Amino acid sequence: MRIEVITIGDELLLGFTIDTNSAFLARELAELGIAVARRSSVADNRDEIAREVRAALERTGAVITSGGLGPTSDDVSVEAVAVALGRELIEDASVIARMEERFRAMGNKIPLNRMNRRQALVPSGAEVLINRHGTAPGLWIADAADRVVVMLPGVPRELRGIFVEEVKPRLARAFPAGGVILSRTLRTTGIAESVLAQRIADSGEGFPSLAYLPGWEGVDLRVTISGLHEQEASQFLAVSIEKLRRITGHHAYAEDATDLASVVLQEARRRGERIVVAESCTGGMLGARLTAIPGSSDVFLGGIISYSNDVKNRKLGVSLSTLETHGAVSEQTVLEMAAGVCDSFGSEIGIAISGIAGPGGGTAKKPVGTVCVAVQARGTTSSATRILTGDRDEIRRRATQMALDSARLLLSQSGEVRQ
Ligand code: ATP
Q1: 151 C-alpha to ligand 1 centroid (Å)
Q2: How far is the CA of 17 from the centre of ligand 1 (A)?
């Protein structure tokens, strides 16, 4: 089963509104085993909407629209669909009754005006979908050939509400699934997309639908399977993820939406240890990542933002000779920062970052993007230097991710678990 999604609104075409409705619908439809065959956006223009809906019905036979159901004169979607299907518009008594009830409940004694009544006009033969989250109702309009147009409001909260409460059950009944569309994502970091692709190709393993999703956190690998029943699809995905874990080795850190910071916190928790941070170029971003995870307070104690050399020396005990000989951006310095912050807080795990975020400050030996991180955990230490790409903001975010990853690797490899 396939369906088309048409989002309607001038704002979408002007770029003032980001089309999140299509993404929501695609994800929800996938759960029903329904694939989105095509997505399009059109202006608030009756003829263009009618043309697009007609074309979608001819191509695919099923279409969901979003937007343009409001009471104002630029809301022309219902009129357009009536034209596309050759239906007349009639006032729906149930919509009028619900609107009056809603107004009464809100203490509004003014009778419905012409604009309000306009919202109760529906194409003849349409089934009204109750909107419990706003005034514009949704519509389900089927024709003699079992082709269907579903109309939903543009306001995301209203669209989501009507879709889940009214449309999803109807779609499940009208188009019983030949299978589901399921996805699982393996998150990797510290490895380039091209290197990953090469490793996967060299492994000789095939993945029917594998998407590479690179970002500043790393490369997410998403496997999608469609057409199987839920249990088979889940099993297939479990096997695929296992294969990808083997191929990607220590670069794989989590699945789906799990943040690397929560993996690090979990490792520290498992070891019964606490984390502190010492940050230079990231100015608190590492602390922000860790504290963004609910429940981090049992493991994360705090940190020191040691932006200047003076603070590195006086608050963290980084020796002046280290700073002079190796510089503030060096593995020697970050190792001393990590040791110093552990001492200062009496903590077991210390993570330190120093780097050149740019755009100025780079040299031939240490160009912009040079970042050093160090981790100390009960006597064991690790340190690394990399040259990260991107603008100042990206370099700082990537540096944070690099430090978290170093911590994950050290914590998962070393140290016995304290009982
Ligand atoms: P209502 O009458 O309840 O406003 P409507 O169907 O007339 O509903 P629109 O006027 O088209 O909705 O859009 C209302 C708001 O919803 C827009 O201002 C925009 O912020 C948001 N919106 C519209 N379409 C989308 C979309 N595709 N994705 C995300 N947001 C959207």
Answers
A1: 12
A2: 9
Whole-angstrom distance, CA of residue 81 vs CA of residue 149: 8
Q: For 363-376, what is each residue's pLDDT tens digit?
A: 999 999 999 999 99
Kindly give the distance from the C-alpha atom of residue 102 to the centroid of ligand 1, in angstroms, as a whole number.
20
Pocket test for ligand 1, best of 6, 8, 10, 11 (most atoms within 8 A of CB): 11
What digits encode the pLDDT tens for the residues 230-280? 899 899 999 999 999 999 999 999 999 899 999 999 999 999 999 999 999
